[in-house]
Amino acid sequence: MKKIKFLILPFVFTFISSMVFAQNKSYPFEVKISGKGKQSIIFIPGFASSGEVWNETKLNYEKKFTCYTLTMAGFAGVKPQPNASFTNWESSIANYIKENNIEKPIIIGHSMGGGLALAIASDYPDLIKKIVIVDALPCLQALSNPSFKSSENPDCSQLVNQITSQTEDQFYQMQKNFISSLVADTSKQELVISWSVNSDRNTFAEMYCDFTNTDLRQKIENIKCSSLILLEDSFKTIKPAIEEQYKNLKNANFQYSTKGFHFIMYDDKEWYLNQLNNFLN
């Protein structure tokens, strides 16, 4: 009996140590865990957005799923971390999944969060069960320049200086003008603006520069899992350009919303939830 206990102890110690490591390790995002279920969903918000953007979505899934809702470091009031980059955030989310033993999660990402979902499913194809991309493209710059090629070391200094030198009022007005074209639901506009205003300016500028330099068009051919691509209503007019970007993605289901702008979860909520329900169930 003593021998059995002696053999078991190292395994118990290793398990506890791994759990403590996973809980204490610093990741470049804040995580809120809710719901109960064997299947997990990881929600990734878009650029400068809070995980709160998924609040209404999560209510529909917390009974059947364990939900991990992220807010990236430096966005929406979360403390910034050094070395913010798209690839660093991608690998950190993948590491979080592995280190916390989250088995084959579904990833739902909006905007830049959708880009992160595509990147994770491309570079870690056996890690993910399904992905839902909410109004994101493999290469943002390719919409205006189909032959766009990303730079190895983009110079972001000019943009960083421009963003960080603005007064609070100037930055607020810039975000107010911009976000009115992204959210048709006026009751949600100030909420989305507040997330941008409460974001760290350096992170805001550096990540915008980095994300707009990202091109995932080729690497998405590595994605194995089923993918639901939800796109805003206005993209119907440029379907060929949109689907050209996604041509290397297998097992993709493209759906275009019926109204509203970029924040589909607010502007076309009923349609959006029906699409999610059909895909997840």
What can you see in these coordinates?
This protein has helices spanning 2-24, 55-58, 86-99, 112-123, 157-164, 168-179, 186-197, 201-211, 239-245, 264-267, 269-280; strands spanning 29-34, 39-44, 65-72, 106-110, 130-134, 226-231, 252-256. The protein has 11 helices and 7 strands. The radius of gyration is 20 Å and the shape is globular. It is an alpha/beta fold. It has one domain (30-280): 3-Layer(aba) Sandwich (Rossmann fold). The protein has a 7-stranded mixed β-sheet, sandwiched between helices. It starts with a helix and ends with a helix.
What separation lies between the terminal Cα atoms? 47 Å
How many DSSP helices?
11
Uncertain stretches of 5 or more adjacent residues: 1-23
Find the CATH superfamily: Alpha/Beta hydrolase fold, catalytic domain
Q: State the shape.
A: globular
Radius of gyration: 20 Å
Q: Give me the oligomer status.
A: single chain
> Can you count the beta strands?
7
CATH topology: Rossmann fold
Helix fraction, binned, reads 40-55%
Structural class: alpha/beta
Count of individual domains? 1
CATH top level assignment: Alpha Beta
List the secondary-structure elements in sequence, H or E.
Answer: HEEHEHEHEHHHHEHEHH
